User: Fold this.
Amino acid sequence: MMHEWRFVLAVGSLFILAGCRPAAPTAPPEPVSGVDVVHYEVDLHLDPATRMLQARTRLTVQHPDTLTRLSLLLRGMNVDSVLVDSSEVEVNREGSHWPIPLSPGKDTSQVDLHYHGVPETGFYERASRSQSVFFSDAWPTDGSGWLPGIHHPADPATLTLRLTIPFGYEAAATGTPQFLDTLGGAVRYQWHLDVPAPTYAFAFAVADFSIVEASVGDTLPVRYYMLAEDAADADLLRRTPAALAYFSEVFGPYPFASYASVEVPIRYAGMENAAAAFLQPELFRTGEAEVVQVHELAHQWFGNRVPIASWNDLWLSEGTATYLETLFFEHADGLAAAREQWVVLADMNPFRRRTHTVLVPAEPQHPNTLLTWVPYDKGASVLHLLRRKLGDITFFEAFRTVYTRHAGRPLSTKVFQQIMEDVSEQDLSDFFAYWVYEDRLPVLDTKWDAITRTLAWQIIEDGGTLADVSFELQVQQQNRIVYVDVRERKAILAGWDEARPDVHPVGVLMNVR
Ligand SMILES: [Zn+2]
Assistant:
């Protein structure tokens, strides 16, 4: 997902900022160890006039053969019947939780739920351009408004989704389109996601879309589902295949059978729905469509294919996607373009100075309370610093190892650190303690001698984590900009004015004074 504080001005009507959130909700329950929903088969019939869904979901669940009850989350819908291995069972809901009795002695169960209703969460109708758009939005557990399941990132699954809608609409969804039936006055679509992803990345949207086709080579289809009047704006996404090809080369092949982006008026700038990312229509007016597209497609590798082990590990998904944005621009547009983005990532503005900067909180948090700049921009900045510390060859080899080992296997921060240590043959415990688990930032202490035009600096309070690490400082005075290696400790700016220049660390978060 790409969140709004980076787009607050651009997407004025929708934002969540630290400070205007309600009191922190409690963390959702952790999944039961050994219980794994492997596949969701979902049949939805949508009546757009009423937003009513008639639904059937079949879950294939692997579990210990001693498990007697499976708890599924489904909020607000009317459940008509529940079947376990084809036999109807009685279930008494406990709030939004449905304790499903399992047949004894089995380690795989098939659970069918038939249900209907107008979802109170996770499915919306919103006007955009000149039309109504119907869309789901599952993050973090809001998918439980239409999908019974285990809504936790550590339980990714494959998905078959069938959606029946009246004639006259187009639909897009998670996975690869498989077929389309016409039935009387309706159309039935089917999509299949052949590689597991978290349920928060399951989504569908219904509107009058125009589909613009592209591809990576002749093997990976790429589609842009644009609201019909915006069809020409698909041109703003023309480098999508290049970004897919670049990440495939750097980390490993793109994980799914197709990629699409879908223009949907969601509450975020973008959402990384598996193989079908959603992009806010406003992005096509503000020039941010490409950067959000690159962020959401980076999540197909990190977040979707490599799921996070707990909500508290969110930075491994969001910090990585944010850093990968800049890697693509470094690759496609050169170092100068990436440097500008790294300066912005590491800008400690007054708002940021007032926030806690712990990347992985000690106690489980509700995922909504984690949506600050910290997992995104501090997360990306820590990855940039790791790259500077380990060197490009080791850093990228370690990241490829993370991807290869954890495709389909939840990734925790502890394991991420372990892989970085194994590949680099360095002990990174002090580095992770300081930058990931503690609320600390170094200070860049600067002195300006206006007579000799000499800028001098030293790093303090870094806990020793920046010793000998090479990174740049951007030094600026009006339209003069130079980049200097932080290890040089001073720069003589011959010919510059008397006024003190501004100093911005390139990609490394620190307080400059
Ligand atoms: Zn994201």
The chain has ten helices and 26 strands. Confidence is low (pLDDT under 50) at residues 8-22. The CA atoms of residues 242 and 332 lie 8 Å apart.
